Amino acid sequence: MDDVRVNSQSLWPMSQLKTVHMTSVHTPLDPRIFHKECRSLARAGFAVTVIGADWKEAEQDHVRIKPIPGSASRLRRMTRTGFDMYQEAVRQNADVYHFHDPELIPIGLLLRAKGKKVIYDIHEDMPKEILSKPYLPKWSRELVSRIVGTIENFASARFSGLVVVTPSIAKRFARLNPQTIIVHNYPYAAELVGEDTRRPWDSRRHSVACVGGLTLHRGIREMVQAMALLPLSLPATLELAGPQSKDDAHIMELRRHPGWARVHHHGFIDQQHTFRILQSVRAGLVLYHPEPNQVESMPQKIFEYMGAGIPVIASDFPLWRKIIGDADCGYFVDPLDRNAIAKMIAYVLTHPSEAEAMGRRGQAAVLAQYNWDTEAKKLIALYSQFRTDRLGNHADTRAIPN
């Protein structure tokens, strides 16, 4: 009988389902891939390995990490890195392969051709994402989007399962593959809402925060410009935590803006440090531009802000209005209007009782609904089906014919 726990020696008995997660874009310790999915699967009794680029071989939280050489070049990632990824995947001889990047679709299809179970984890709506890619000429984006969508649809119908992050993405793929499940990118509630994190409101700094990628289409320019419009009498700062774009010319430009004098840029930091910042400020900003791939997204930072007990200042998108508005834990602005953003920041910082009450309602919503524990059960249930299939020697009906 399988033990649903992983013992302290990380021994993998033959009865365990051996699973491999693959990513060429994200770090092997990515919050969703490693800290949520892989750790949850390991705790549920699955043998888990992550193959990722530019890392060192290690074992952490009963998850093994197998490194391959990486590259900053997108073309090289899709060729040399992809080949290295496939070779390592074959060496692992796993029962289930779970990949996280569209550029790994060819590898997924090759593994399916070998009769392996393959899961495609779809973090974003790629055809819509392409419509906003700055490195593509505008005239080509619609055509490239259609080509990528056709390829992704063809492949997704042949994988053993699809894991998606939002209902809108699920709607697109469920008709192609009935084994499609939504696993939202919610935070671990205990890491954000534990007793040691509930600090008095008056001990928090007069600061707002934005965590995650610092790109133009996620509103970094408007945030910095808004900080320059705040009253001089308001000692407010903007705490930024996350990697900046590879094309960081816009960051260099913003560093010369008067608003940058109120900015503390912490750079890329680990999750624990990020949470400490959120637990010390009075609001969180998520000001994505109204682009096709963003209006129906569900950024993890929204739920991290809620879990940290701070109100959310968010773009006025219908889906976000439902999540944040239903919980009554935030405010909405036009993300392109720096004056409106500045006024809202000033309002939150000068109405502490209202802001604190909103933060408490956000925490309550995370504890009741928007937490990783509810999502992990869905993922484990999908993997448990594959374990049952292996023990019963059931064939996968989506195998690619010779």
Topology summary:
Layout: E1 18-23, H1 31-43, E2 47-53, E3 58-60, E4 63-68, H2 74-92, E5 96-99, H3 105-113, E6 117-122, H4 126-130, H5 138-156, E7 161-164, H6 167-174, E8 180-182, H7 189-193, E9 207-211, H8 220-228, E10 237-241, H9 249-255, E11 263-265, H10 271-278, E12 284-286, H11 300-307, E13 312-315, H12 318-327, E14 330-333, H13 338-350, H14 352-368, H15 372-392
Helix pairs in contact: 1-15, 8-13, 11-14
Mean pLDDT: 89
Assembly type of the shown chains? single chain
The total of helices stands at 15
- Summarize the helix and strand pattern as letters: EHEEEHEHEHHEHEHEHEHEHEHEHEHHH
CATH architecture of the largest domain: 3-Layer(aba) Sandwich
CATH topology of the largest domain: Rossmann fold
Rg, alpha carbons: 22 Å
Determine the strand fraction and express it as a percent band: 15-25%
- What are the segments in which pLDDT stays under 50 over at least 5 consecutive residues? 1-14
- Biggest pleated-sheet summary: 8 strands, mixed
| Main structural class | alpha/beta
So, the CATH homologous superfamily of the largest domain?
Glycogen Phosphorylase B
Domains (count): 2
The CATH C-level class name of the largest domain: Alpha Beta
Q: How much helical structure, as a percent, in the residues?
A: 40-55%
How many β-strand runs?
14
Strand order of the largest sheet: 3-4-2-1-5-6-7-8
Shape: globular
Cα distance spanning the termini: 36 Å
